[in-house]
Design a protein that fits this description.
307 residues; alpha/beta; FAD/NAD(P)-binding domain; 2 domains; seven-stranded mixed β-sheet; five-stranded parallel β-sheet; 19 strands; 28% helix; elongated; FAD/NAD-binding_dom; oxidoreductase activity; FAD/NAD-bd_sf; Ferredoxin-NADP_redctase_2; flavoprotein
Length: 307
């Protein structure tokens, strides 16, 4: 594959594969590069995506890859992109095995969660099985259980308001960080949400199911599941950062990459979608972004070829 492609998609998750599907149906020469190590592999089921609710993420991916095979303009390779370079003719992507040139690149590499860096013993064992980051993805399954919200004094207290919608039994654990805003404490207490500021010693679980949270003073508090608003996630690749793509403030104060309505960055021909752009988009939103950018690129190419 030595000729210059129209599009290279780096990343084959929901966002990347959705973009590839639209580009394939538009008969646009596209290469998908994917390592097949998605962020959501730790979970048992994916939820909130119409017609795919409850399926394992791997099942959704395999179906997508199988359906992509009928579009001859799309080539899928299980290769890791190592470097992305911008040049006069577009972009060059270097992988473990080859070098590819394209006029456009879509970064859809997502984020990786860094649960171990949070430093709570036993958290890794329950993450994705009974402790989750997204109530829209897993809140229904955790409904009416004894839940914990684990995080810092700012994020955990704010997140608890949302989790309260799914269960009346919610406790905030700030892991040693005091909540200094008395108005927040009063408001949570008014809504029946106590705050435990003591440092967490460990989480006890059985086959991935949270059973209790042990505090530094020895107190053991029964919990059946929980949510964690900050997974300390980082970008899976540093391509956008290295190229100097501009950022702006997004949801909950998170830094996100600045794009236009078509998900194109300030670097012409470079698009960022899904978790790679926002840090957390969810499956359905990522699929939507992929579809949107596939259409946008198709329209760009149509305009370029119109005499």
């Amino acid at each position: 594959m030595n000729k210059t492609l129209e599009v290279i998609i780096i990343g084959g998750g929901p966002a990347g594969m959705s973009a590839a599907l639209v580009l394939g149906r538009s008969r646009i020469q596209t290469l998908v590069l994917n390592t097949e190590r998605p962020r959501n592999m730790v979970t048992k089921h994916s939820h909130g995506f119409l017609t795919q609710d409850g399926k394992h993420p791997t099942e959704i991916f395999e179906t997508a890859k199988k359906q992509m095979a009928k579009y001859p303009s799309v080539v899928y390779k299980n290769e890791k992109a190592l470097q992305l370079i911008s040049n006069e003719s577009g972009f060059r992507v270097e992988t473990e095995n080859a070098v590819y040139d394209s006029r456009r690149v879509i970064i859809a590499t997502g984020h990786r969660d860094n649960i171990e860096s949070i430093g709570i013993k036993g958290l890794k064992e329950v993450y994705g099985t009974s402790v989750y980051p997204c109530p829209f993805c897993d809140g229904f399954e955790m409904a009416d259980k004894k839940l914990a919200v684990i995080g810092d004094a700012a994020m955990a207290t704010m997140f608890a308001k949302k989790i309260k919608h799914w269960s009346d039994d919610v406790i905030v654990f700030t892991n040693g960080e005091p909540v200094l805003d008395e108005a927040i404490v009063e408001n949570l207490n008014l809504n029946g949400i106590p705050i435990m500021e003591e440092k967490i010693t460990q989480l006890n679980s059985n086959h991935g199911v949270l059973q209790s949270i042990v505090l530094e003073g020895g107190q053991m508090i029964e919990r059946e599941g929980g949510f964690i608003p900050d997974t300390k996630s980082t970008e899976y690749t540093d391509f956008a950062k290295t190229l100097g793509v501009a950022k702006e403030e997004g949801f909950m104060g998170m830094e996100i990459y600045k794009v236009d309505d078509f998900k194109e960055t300030d670097i012409k021909g470079l698009f960022i979608i899904g978790d790679a752009r926002t840090g957390w988009s969810g499956v359905a939103s990522s699929v939507a972004e992929g579809s949107e950018v596939g259409k946008a690129i198709t329209f760009q190419i149509i305009d370029e070829n119109w005499k």
